[in-house]
User: Fold this.
Amino acid sequence: MTTHGVVDTPAFMPVGTQGSVKGISPRELRELNAQIVLGNTYHLFVRPGLDVIKHFGGLHRFMNWDGPILTDSGGYQIFSLAKLRKITEDGVEFQNHIDGARAFISPEIAMEIQAALGSDIAMALDECVPYPCEYDYAAQSAEMTTRWAKRCKAVASAVLSGESSTRSPHGSDALRTAHTTTRQLLFGIVQGATFEDLRKQSAQAIVDLDFDGYAIGGVSVGEPEQEMMRGVESAEPFLPRDKPRYAMGLGTPPQLLEMIARGMDMFDCVLPTRLARNGTAFTARGTLNLKNAEFALDKRPIEENCSCDVCREFSRGYIRHLIKAEEILGLRLITLHNLHFYLNLMRQARSEIERGTFDQFRRMFVAEYKPRDAMTVE
Amino acid sequence: MTTHGVVDTPAFMPVGTQGSVKGISPRELRELNAQIVLGNTYHLFVRPGLDVIKHFGGLHRFMNWDGPILTDSGGYQIFSLAKLRKITEDGVEFQNHIDGARAFISPEIAMEIQAALGSDIAMALDECVPYPCEYDYAAQSAEMTTRWAKRCKAVASAVLSGESSTRSPHGSDALRTAHTTTRQLLFGIVQGATFEDLRKQSAQAIVDLDFDGYAIGGVSVGEPEQEMMRGVESAEPFLPRDKPRYAMGLGTPPQLLEMIARGMDMFDCVLPTRLARNGTAFTARGTLNLKNAEFALDKRPIEENCSCDVCREFSRGYIRHLIKAEEILGLRLITLHNLHFYLNLMRQARSEIERGTFDQFRRMFVAEYKPRDAMTVE
Assistant:
């Protein structure tokens, strides 16, 4: 339950990096029954910038999406996109990837930015270490992430109790507004790289801080799938059962079901939107690369028996033509289908869980699903 | 009246070059109340190719558009896009601009292709001469265009009377199908470059052949606006009043109104879709380049009092952000607004004509409209 509505779990969050789920309008998101979208704090901070979004009254109004929004803390993108990073206990200094302007983000500033964005769920600032990562660095980093989480929590608590102690370097009072007129939830993030004991320690320390929900970060950063599963499994037992659990940046359809089996509730992933722009569509039998010549005369929809508008109206052959001819409608149609596929998979999972048949459903789905094209989650 | 529905005139036809109005879905076209779209024969002939479109049962089914479609003859694109053209009395040999494959189009083949596409209105094959053009070449070319028009008409008449004499080099019987199960209209095209006497002679000769409608081609090919107006004015008196008159490839909003004042009924133009992709929106006061910094904090819609969905839901500031961030949604939103603007201008024109107040409306509109950015029609 968020300020802008209820989110049924397990839930998939389409990624709206720059204030738009790529290729898709808010109306289409509503028609897809998306219940929540993700916004990337780093991208929005860099462009159009906080002043612009505050001027428009927050991200919901800016992008005309009145459902729930989760914003990440910006940490992941600072560590994957920005240049000349300098990490200290205080925070991260970096140059953004658009115009190279210098900026500094601390746990307090990350909270302030997300308050200005007005998201329903904010994420604590974390350091997301790359794969592979040395044990010692991973340990120190996870401990710092815990200290950062504590500072984020302190900001949220101070605002809630009406005694904001943060002096905003951006001169904003948006922080207080977001927390008093709406109830912005705050999730902590478990780190610890691929090391079981670090994952456990991180989970315990983060849970001790008592957040509204818990995310597992630093997964799906290039490690083998088994390591990813183990990373989640190592942390999961220490996360309370009555709070949402969010596996960040995941994943393929089978991975989502495996994660649900391991107790995860929320997911975000660029695969359905990013692969669509490359002509790749998801089906229960695996992915189809619609650029392939085999589809040129194919009158079938992307997926037979699919209930999405695209599959009701358009053939593989037509969509292939659009992709080959670089017509924008092609990637739009595949994006719509792919998002429907992910959102529908979550609906199916919820219904199977309710009926107590989820394990059977998961096993059958995973056995049927054959990834035909190499896929990587970036 | 066409096989797929009625078209009210004056009418604007959104351009669906490659089987898609760029960025827009057929559903959106219906919601915009577009009554007819244009398909480019040359582009579709090159990619996906006739075999593909025939396999799908024609262009309507291929692109899932059940309203009227007008196809051009391919001539204009052969003369503007293709390479190594060789024009003879028989037809045009060329290499396409995609993979350089050689092809040959004659008046008979142009008719056959359009029959296979299954358009509601086909255009006779013409030679569109560039601007500027020598008198002698323009005269010879216009005469050849008339002879080509006669051959196109002969094909249509032969098919209508059930005695198709064309042997299809593509092995297709689509020609007969299109003319017997549906009534494909055929328009002739007036040429004559910028020369009044040639325009007059061309118009008279083409009208003598008795087509279902008449187009004025070879305008808006780079000539000054006055020359363009004169080209239309020179031909117009010789076109019958009871047949549709189509000014090809036009134009800016004021140009369309001026053309309506000069008796033109149908228009097609890439401006609303092409300029949208560059961030330019049409308003009654002229164009806005939404990339400009002045719009960053602008909460107003593209056009105040505009009834389109985009203006009801999105601000200039948000759309500017999308365009700057190269988000596809940005060009989609501007395209939707621009098409609404053009289609609505035609609706207004129809209503003013009915009320007998069109001239006043046109004068006021043209006086208010200030093009703020350089615009060229390609």
In short: The longest helix of chain A spans residues 328-355. The interface with chain B takes residues 18-20, 22-27, 47-48, 52, 55-56, 62-64, 296-297, 299, 309, 313-315, 317-318, 321-322, 324-325, 327-333 of chain A (CB under 8 Å). Residues 164-181, 374-378 of chain A have pLDDT under 50 and may be disordered.
